[in-house]
């Protein structure tokens, strides 16, 4: 079997860039949403808290980068490719399923890194963000990368289960907006959620990241336990979805 | 190269392939795998490649990974250039592979490198996969309906190019098709399938003799032609044709003289795969009923 090489990775990266919705939802959309929400929220914020609130909102919207690039991007791309049996063609040319999956993950994480840093740069230049501590910056990145890897597993599982673009994209979009709503990223704070949805919101990491990543960023003391538990929960569910999809499709060609 | 003792493939409760007789494909063989839609041709390929589950006893002299395959439908990423796709598959710059450069020239594919896959014509798409499959330099190569979707001229041109490329090479080639004429100058062995079962397998010439005799005369199926040739041995043939079998030189001359005397146009053949297949299938169906 062939090993992963730079030409394969480069081709994957070009493919990500060539699909307009990945740069749009992964880069342009978070920037746009953050600008709109920040301008709306700042009207009621005292002058002394403006920078802190701006930083909190901007950092919380960075979650849209892994959600759009890794989750929506991979689910929609992979399901389209499965529908056309591109992965099987690549396997017949010597690239194993695991090599293809690993290559896609690396290229998504590279693109995700680009999106993350571009968003941070634009936020920093346009919104006067508070500068992080070095440790806070690295820990914030770590949280987003862990979230990215978890979302990759979930996207891969859903796409591999359906192997069709329509249902995969439908479920992907539903989850994308559900995660945003439950994370308080759609203009409704977690406190304002209906009581039925609050426990679900507490199980997922999006709300914790939205509300607490500012403390991590600034190097302040932070109780990591709820965030870690929620990442473990979403990671566990995503791993189960992915493994079940492998099991479900065990006897079928990719 | 391939040794099949038995091979079964089920799709749910449907038995899609059921091979119960030994089939041996030797190194260097050019095998035509023939059958109508649903005959089990692609199922056989998928089972040999291990991409669908199968039962039975079969062995390959090469690893499954060392088999090159041109599938019936070959799709690639559509958002990148063909060059990028090729370099991803090759794992290096095209220019570093002289053999690939030669193939690109051989298949007149230079202009297509800049295009995206979705903008290639049907023939160009087939050529892309052909170049990549041939570049694998595999000892065993399957071409599954390689000319599907192409017009007659493009089909013939593509088969000629493949034939020409492999003329002096030792690779074992298996050519899956339902176009008989593609195999006339290509295959030396034939595997005939129908409804998932083997009708026959063997040397192309021997199969012709077995089912058609020494030579066959093919003419239009008209009432006059039927009446004119009623005392000769008729073979099964497509509805618009009559096929007359000759098993000796004397018989052959008799038929030819009668047809020439009546000014009837005919084709004399000792290798027509279509007529042979029709008769093999009839014989097989007769044996089963």
Low-confidence stretches of chain B: none
Radius of gyration of chain A: 19 Å
CATH class of the largest domain in chain B: Alpha Beta
How would the global form of chain B be characterised?
A: globular
Oligomer state of the chains in this structure: heterodimer
Given as residue ranges, the uncertain stretches of chain A (5+ residues, pLDDT < 50) are none
Number of helices of chain A: 11
First and last CA, distance of chain B: 34 Å
Briefly characterize the structure.
The complex is a heterodimer of chains A (254) and B (289). Chain A is an all-alpha fold and 254 residues long.
Can you put this structure into words, describing what you see?
The complex is a heterodimer of chains A (254) and B (289). With 254 residues, chain A is mostly helical. Chain A has one domain (6-248). Helix content of chain A is 78%, strand content 0%. Chain A is built from eleven helices and no strands. In chain A, α2 (21-42) runs parallel beside α6 and α4 (64-84) packs parallel to α7. The longest helix of chain A has 31 residues, at 97-127. Chain A is globular and about 60 Å long. The mean pLDDT of chain A is 91. By secondary structure, chain B is an alpha/beta fold. Chain B folds into two domains: 2-203, Rossmann fold (3-Layer(aba) Sandwich); 207-288, Alpha-Beta Plaits, CATH 3.30.70. Chain B is 34% helix and 26% strand. Chain B is built from nine helices and 14 strands. In chain B, α3 (98-106) packs antiparallel against α4 and α6 packs across α9. The longest helix of chain B is centred in the last third of the chain and has 16 residues, at 273-288. The radius of gyration of chain B is 22 Å and the shape is globular. Chain B starts with a strand and ends with a helix. The interface between A and B is medium-sized, with 30 and 27 residues.
């Amino acid at each position: 079997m062939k090993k992963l090489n730079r030409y394969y990775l480069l081709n994957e990266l070009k493919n990500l860039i060539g699909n307009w919705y990945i740069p749009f939802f992964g880069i342009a959309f978070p920037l746009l949403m953050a600008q709109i929400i920040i301008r709306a929220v700042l009207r009621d914020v005292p002058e002394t808290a403006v920078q802190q609130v701006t930083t909190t909102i901007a950092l919380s919207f960075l979650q849209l980068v892994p959600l759009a690039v890794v989750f929506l991007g991979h689910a929609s791309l992979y399901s389209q490719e499965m529908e056309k049996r591109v992965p099987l063609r690549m396997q017949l040319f010597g690239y194993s399923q695991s090599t293809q999956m690993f290559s896609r993950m690396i290229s998504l994480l590279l693109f995700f890194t680009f999106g993350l840093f571009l968003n941070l740069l634009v936020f920093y230049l346009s919104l006067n963000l508070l500068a992080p501590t070095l440790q806070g910056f690295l820990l914030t990145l770590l949280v987003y990368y862990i979230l990215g890897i978890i979302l990759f597993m979930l996207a891969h599982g859903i796409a591999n289960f359906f192997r069709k673009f329509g249902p995969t994209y439908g479920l992907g979009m539903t989850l994308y907006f559900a995660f945003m709503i439950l994370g308080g990223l759609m203009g409704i704070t977690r406190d304002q959620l209906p009581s039925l949805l609050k426990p679900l919101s507490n199980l997922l990491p999006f709300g914790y990241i939205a509300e607490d990543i500012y403390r991590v960023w600034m190097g302040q003391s932070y109780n990591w336990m709820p965030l870690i538990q929620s990442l473990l929960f979403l990671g566990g569910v995503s791993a189960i979805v992915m493994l079940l999809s492998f099991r479900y499709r065990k006897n079928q060609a990719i | 190269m391939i040794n099949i003792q038995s091979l079964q493939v089920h799709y749910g409760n449907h038995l899609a392939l059921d091979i119960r007789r030994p089939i041996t494909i030797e190194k260097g063989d050019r095998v035509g795998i023939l059958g109508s839609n649903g005959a089990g041709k692609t199922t056989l390929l998928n089972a040999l490649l291990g991409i669908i589950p199968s039962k039975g006893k079969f062995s390959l002299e090469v690893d499954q990974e060392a088999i090159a395959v041109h599938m019936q439908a070959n799709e690639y990423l559509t958002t990148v250039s063909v060059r990028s796709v090729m370099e991803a598959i090759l794992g290096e710059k095209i220019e570093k592979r002289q053999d690939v450069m030669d193939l690109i020239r051989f298949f007149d594919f230079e202009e297509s490198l800049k295009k995206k896959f979705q903008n290639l014509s049907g023939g160009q798409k087939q050529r892309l996969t052909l170049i990549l499959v041939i570049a694998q330099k595999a000892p065993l190569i399957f071409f599954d309906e390689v000319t599907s979707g192409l017009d007659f001229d493009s089909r013939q041109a593509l088969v000629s190019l493949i034939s020409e490329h492999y003329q002096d090479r030792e690779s074992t080639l298996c050519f899956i098709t339902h176009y008989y004429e593609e195999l006339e100058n290509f295959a030396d062995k034939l595997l005939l399938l129908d409804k998932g079962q083997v009708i026959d397998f063997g040397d192309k010439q021997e199969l012709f003799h077995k089912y058609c005799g020494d030579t066959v005369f093919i003419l239009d199926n008209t009432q006059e032609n039927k009446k004119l040739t009623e005392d000769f041995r008729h073979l099964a043939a497509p509805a618009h044709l009559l096929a007359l079998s000759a098993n000796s030189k004397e018989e052959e001359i008799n038929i030819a003289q009668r047809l020439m005397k009546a000014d009837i146009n005919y084709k004399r053949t000792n290798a027509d795969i279509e007529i042979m297949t029709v008769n093999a299938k009839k014989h097989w169906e007769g044996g089963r009923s």
